[in-house]
User: Fold this.
Amino acid sequence: MSRIRVLVGTAKGGFILTSDGLRKAWTVEGPHFAGWEIYHMIGSPVAPDRIFASQTSGWFGQVVQRSEDGGKTWEAVGNEFAYASTPGTHQWYDGTPHPWEFARVWHFEPSLSDPDTVFAGVEDAGLFKTTDGGSTWSEIAGLRENETGRRWQPGAGGMCLHTIVLDPTNDERMWVAISAAGVFKTDDAGATWSPANVGLQSNYIPDPDAFVGHCVHRIALHAERPNVLFMQKHWDVMRSDDGAETWHEISGNLPTDFGFVVDTHAHAPETLYVVPITSDAHHFPPNGRLAVYRSRVGGNEWEELGAGLPERDCYVNVLREAMAVDDLDPCGIYFGTTGGQVYVSSDEGDHWSAIVHDLPRVLSIEVQTLP
Amino acid sequence: MIRVVLPQLLRTLAATQREIELDVAAPVTIESVLDVVEACYPVLRGTIRDIETKKRRAFVRFFACEEDLSHGPIDQPLPELVVAGVEPLIVLGAIAGG
Assistant:
């Protein structure tokens, strides 16, 4: 029977939750790196026991940890993220020029074919790559040196490159998302980049349909449809059918289209999930009622999935990295909250239960389906 | 031997006790002590000072003999009591964030 390993990054350490394919009984291990913020933990798709963890602290900086045994033991690897050229400036919150400074790794994206190759999205927004399993990191500078770079500005969480999406059918193509700059796309393995924000409408910025400057919270792609991307923007759930050349809104009947996460079903490319959050000022579910929303038709038509989730007095948030799916059939859906709960549904979202109730603030969730 | 006290998160990261003892060649300065700390515990590279610029991280402070040495020259000799191993150099994480 398959096994499931859930990698949970929290504000005070990393946790590993394991179960068999039934997803009913869970073992909780951790905290790993207690006291540190674990922004992201993720395994290599081609070597699942190789896991990378972003261990970070406002006091003591960035550490990168690697495990070769599924998280039982860890080794600190390279943590030098030096921008490849004179960093220059981007915009600060007040619009003044601000020097580019490395703060932390928000996201690792392991290669789909090589266990030694991993991309890292960092704050201040930049894209790095290792080809030696994390010992050394080099910047893919074409992104930051994009002509729009000096106009990028931070979102509330910092100016972070938080999402990296690899095209499973084309090694030369990838997309990244930066808060609050937007989506950028490369078709030449990172040498050159172009903004990919046509169709986005953000009424809270001076130019609502600007080329860059949109606060994109998350983008997701289904491997079977590499030209179809889904986006949870600050406000608005969006879709692209042409590889992010253009976007259109699919918020439809959602109770609010503000939120952070979006993910796709493992086996149904037109099925996607979001967690509506009340507003940019109220980072909690509408009316204190926590619910995932699912569309089975690629957006616009959404159904509330709340069975087993708190129906009242719930004022947590679900952060952008804190939802993932497994590869089993029926597909399992997982998300973590700022209140420390990790929820699982083993039936595509119809019913939910908490794996754990009281972890620290959950920053990220990744799921591995193991043989 | 030079005594260095590390903050809790760095002790667990480096798998050390609260206090470590190091052989540091004269002149004993903050810079030379940190060079030896990082040579003995490579995992601490970048956690106390920037890897490239060697600049002290903003929320890290250096104390010895009840004096704040955070803002002095890093190549200035440390107090005699530290050099003699009587008092430790204390690496302290700023109290911030609750």
Q: What stands out?
A: Chain A touches chain B at residues 33-36, 57-63, 76, 79-80, 82 (CB under 8 Å).
